[in-house]
Amino acid sequence: MSVELYVPQIPDNLNIRFVENRIVINRPVQAVYDWVTTWSNLPKWLPMALGTEVRRGTEGVPAEMGDVLLETIQPELNEKPKLYTVVARVPGKLWTVVGRDVLDDGSLAPAMHAIATFTTFDLGDGTTLFCRLFERLVPDTEPPGPHPVEDPARIQVGLELIKAHLEGTAG
Q1: The domain spanning residue 80 has which CATH number?
Q2: Domain carrying residue 33
Q3: Res 147: pLDDT
Q4: What is the DSSP letter of 150?
Q5: Which of 4, 54, 141, 150 sits in a 20 to 30 Å window from 13, CA-based?
Q6: Residue 32 is inside which H or E element, if any?
Q7: Is residue 124 part of a domain?
Q8: Which is a Pfam family this sequence falls into (predicted)?
Q9: Long-range contacts of 65-68 (CB under 8 A, 24+ apart)
Q10: Considering the domain boundaries, does residue 10 fall inside one?
C-alpha cells in the first residue's frame, strides 16, 4: 500500500510549521493508543528522541491528563530538551501534548514550542489508522527552511517502527 506523506499548504517562511504522518497498523485501536501514549516507548520510534524522563505520572503506562515528560533530543539536531505536558486525552482516540524548551539554566521557555497530537481510528477489521500531527512554533532566530523535525519522510520511518513493534516484527 502506498502512503502519501502530508504536504503542508503553509509556506516555510511563517512562524508555525506542521507535519502530519499516518500509518495503518494491524492491531486493535486500544493497543495502538496505549503503546504510543506510553512515554517510555517514545525513544523506540521517534527519530529525534534520545531519551525520556517521566516528571509527573507513571513510567511504563499510557500518560494521563497533566502528566509531564522531559524529552532529550538527538545531539546532532542542536535542540534544547523539551518538557511535554498532556493537555488533551480521549482514551483510545486522541492524545495531545504541549512542549516547552528547557533552557540552559534549567528554567522553562516562557512560551510553548511544540504541539503533538496522536489520533487513532478503528478501521473495523482489527486494524488501526494512526495519525501524528506535529505543530512547531519557529523562533525568529531560526534560518528559513524546514527543520529536521518537520521532515515527513524522516518521521514516517518512526511510524514504521511503531508498526513493527506493535505487529511483533521489530528487530
Answers
A1: 3.30.530.20
A2: 16-167
A3: 73
A4: G
A5: 4
A6: helix 29-36
A7: yes
A8: Polyketide_cyc2
A9: 65/89, 67/39
A10: no
Residues of the chain below pLDDT 70: 1-13, 143-146
Is 112 inside any structural domain? Answer: yes
Please answer whether residues 20 and 131 qualify as being in contact, where contact means their C-beta atoms are separated by less than 8 angstroms: yes
Inter-CA distances, 42 with 70, 86, 123, Å? 11, 14, 24
Neighbours of 133 (CB within 10 A): 16
- Whole-number pLDDT of residue 1: 42
CA distance 70 to 137: 18
Only one residue has cell 482489527, namely 126
State residue 77's pLDDT score: 85
User: What was the pLDDT predicted at 7?
Assistant: 60
For residue 13, report the phi and psi dihedrals to the nearest 5 degrees. Answer: -95, 10
104's CB contacts (< 8 A; 6+ apart) are 80
pTM: 0.89
